[in-house]
Amino acid sequence: MASTFTGPQVYQENFDSQIYLDTYYGAVNGVFIKDGYLNFILKKLHKAFTSGGVKGDLLIDIGPGPCIYQELSACEAFKEITAADFTDRNREYLEKWRRNEPGLFDWTASLKFVCELEGRSGKIAEKEDKLRKTLKRVVPCDVTKSNPLHPLVLPKADCVLTVGCLECACKDEEAYGKVIKNLSSLLKVGGHLIIGSILESTIFRCGKSQFSLINLSEQFLRKVVTDTGFVIEDLEVLCREFDKPMFDICDHTSGIFILAKKVKDV
Ligand SMILES: C[S@@+](CC[C@H](N)C(=O)[O-])C[C@H]1O[C@@H](n2cnc3c(N)ncnc32)[C@H](O)[C@@H]1O
């Protein structure tokens, strides 16, 4: 499918947080529920933050949109989490979640799944509470800036986590390489970069809006991460079952999870 790059201002104007959550994470028909991507990422994150040994003081979650699922395991391994997204609406949605306002997206299925992975079935309320306490701030971010959190300067983080954002924010592979460098600048040497992404996609839809995606391959991601001073510790690809109606909403062929350790500044 042909697509023209939809930059961050298009997200600011057209990205509807609630429609996105219902379309991609809705209990029965959500795209990432049906193709298994959500549970794949939750399992990989659980492993990274337990046996993978990823832990520390500060984790920065880049481009969470209105989502909190990707922080459910991290909140047990980090003293604090900063969530950073481009759009006002997504940040406001996350702030509402922090304030436990009524009428927001129901994450019970993900909470239950992660509690079970942790051997703590039924501890959903405790898990929500823990994440609300650990998610200390929600800040603006543009990954294309050399300091993506500008004007905020944070201490170097022990982990930068980004799921489902960079394929949206980059118009081509060259831009992607620069963005990985920008994210690396937020990390300590010895810290970890975690990327969750979808492969070989060109567009996704959210309500009446369509957004471009960079067509990523596993080979490119391996190279760009390694060339930017990281050593890959875990990488797994999940192939997507072909499902035509869903393919029209988002045309990825697979999902990928990468855990990489920063070994040098480049
Ligand atoms: C498809 S949503 C992904 C939401 C969520 N991470 C998930 O896993 O479903 C893409 C997110 O990237 C953010 N984004 C797009 N361009 C960005 C940029 N230049 N800097 C930071 N965030 C950006 C959007 O605001 C949006 O929240």
UniProtKB/TrEMBL annotation:
- Top-level taxon in the UniProt lineage: Eukaryota
Does this entry carry the keyword Ubl conjugation? Answer: no
UniProt keywords, alphabetically:
Methyltransferase, S-adenosyl-L-methionine, Transferase
The record's InterPro entries line, in alphabetical order, gives: NNMT_TEMT_trans, SAM-dep_methyltransferase, SAM-dependent_MTases_sf
Gene Ontology terms describing biological process: methylation
Report one GO cellular component: cytosol
- One annotated GO molecular function: S-adenosylmethionine-dependent methyltransferase activity
Q: Name one Pfam family in it.
A: NNMT_PNMT_TEMT
> Could you say which residues bind S-adenosyl-L-methionine here?
20, 25, 69, 85, 90, 142-143
- UniProt-listed PROSITE patterns: SAM_MT_NNMT_PNMT_TEMT (PS51681)
Asked if the record carries the keyword tRNA-binding, the reply is: no
Q: Which NCBIfam families match?
A: GntF_guanitoxin (NF041360)
Report the family membership: Belongs to the class I-like SAM-binding methyltransferase superfamily. NNMT/PNMT/TEMT family.
- Record's protein name: Indolethylamine N-methyltransferase-like
Provide the species name. Eleutherodactylus coqui (Puerto Rican coqui)
